């Protein structure tokens, strides 16, 4: 039985806005285990991105808490949150993923450099993973010299190289053609075998159906739906 990696405890999120409040989650209690491959689905505006931001400790819950490795995180300082993220979480956002002043390969090397890895070794690792993502020939390009799909693949490579226990991905295959999406997904399956937890928001039904289960968000609640 795998242990629980991340958990939401009575999580509530309301956005205050002058046009009226938006209640995204009323009282969310999720338990996500090590090695789970989870598809986050739901209509546009249902709160998928918001939930991923909360799980990444990038946003404050209105009420409730998030536990990572069985530790409550609400009272963490910003430094502690940064550290927790660096050690445990890789994030692939919908956009604005890459550092614009660095080349594709430098972006991918970044998590290893931050960890204090030797530059030559980091570069070799980055090359390997860029090759798997079929984007090695764009290593020396800066983000603004890459297409949306290419940027996305570089961002995925950067998330994967860090080898964190949790990978949060917001529509990671949104800019990609179906074959490339399937390849990215097969990479997720490999990570699952390594006991990594992957939570990815998607509108792609076929990929969602291949996850261990789906979390369907609507009207402030989440339903767990078995994909298979
Ligand atoms: N900072 C914010 N302030 C107010 N409302 C927001 C904010 N961020 C998102 N929202 C609203 O919350 C809802 C959920 O957004 P989001 O999580 O991006 O949905 P999804 O990713 O499922 O499309 C949307 O209706 C959006 O307009
Ligand atoms: Mg979104």
Would you summarize the structure shown here?
The protein has 228 residues and is an alpha/beta fold. 35% of the residues lie in helices and 27% in strands. The chain has a single domain, classed as Rossmann fold (3-Layer(aba) Sandwich).
Strand order within the widest beta sheet: 7-8-9-4-10-11
Rg, rounded, reads 17 Å
Q: What distance lies between the first and last C-alpha atoms, to the nearest angstrom? A: 19 Å
What name does CATH use for the topology?
Rossmann fold
Number of helices: 7
How many β strands by DSSP?
Answer: 11
User: Quick one: overall form?
Assistant: globular
CATH class, named Alpha Beta
Strand content: 25-35%
Q: What is the helix/strand order?
A: EEEEHEEHEHHHEHEHEE
Domains (count):
1
Q: What hetero molecules are bound to the protein chains?
A: adenosine-5'-diphosphate, magnesium ion
Percent helix among the residues? 25-40%
Going by CATH, the architecture would be: 3-Layer(aba) Sandwich
Biggest β-sheet: count, sense, barrel? 6 strands, mixed
Q: What is the averaged pLDDT score?
A: 92
Structure class:
alpha/beta
Q: At the fourth CATH level, what is the homologous superfamily?
A: P-loop containing nucleotide triphosphate hydrolases
What low-confidence regions span 5 or more consecutive residues with pLDDT below 50? none
């Amino acid at each position: 039985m795998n242990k629980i990696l991340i958990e939401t405890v009575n999580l509530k999120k309301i956005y205050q806005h002058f046009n009226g409040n938006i209640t995204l989650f009323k009282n969310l209690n999720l338990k996500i285990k090590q090695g789970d491959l989870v598809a986050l689905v739901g209509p546009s505006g249902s709160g998928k991105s918001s939930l991923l931001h909360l799980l990444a400790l990038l946003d404050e819950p209105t009420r409730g808490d998030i536990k990572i490795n069985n530790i409550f995180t609400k009272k963490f300082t910003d430094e502690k949150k940064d550290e927790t993220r660096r050690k445990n979480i890789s994030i692939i956002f919908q956009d604005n993923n890459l550092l614009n002043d660095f080349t594709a390969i430098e972006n991918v090397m970044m998590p290893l450099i931050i960890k204090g890895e030797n530059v030559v070794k980091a570069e070799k690792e980055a090359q390997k993973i860029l090759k798997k993502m079929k984007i090695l020939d764009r290593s020396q390009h800066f983000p603004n010299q890459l297409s949306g799909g290419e940027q996305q693949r570089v961002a995925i490579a950067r998330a994967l190289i860090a080898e964190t226990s949790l990978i949060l991905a917001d529509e990671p295959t949104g800019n990609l053609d179906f074959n490339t999406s399937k390849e990215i997904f097969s990479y997720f399956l490999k990570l699952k075998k390594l006991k990594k937890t992957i939570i990815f928001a998607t509108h792609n039904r076929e990929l969602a159906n291949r996850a261990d289960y789906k979390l369907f968000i609507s009207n402030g609640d989440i339903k767990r739906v078995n994909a298979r």
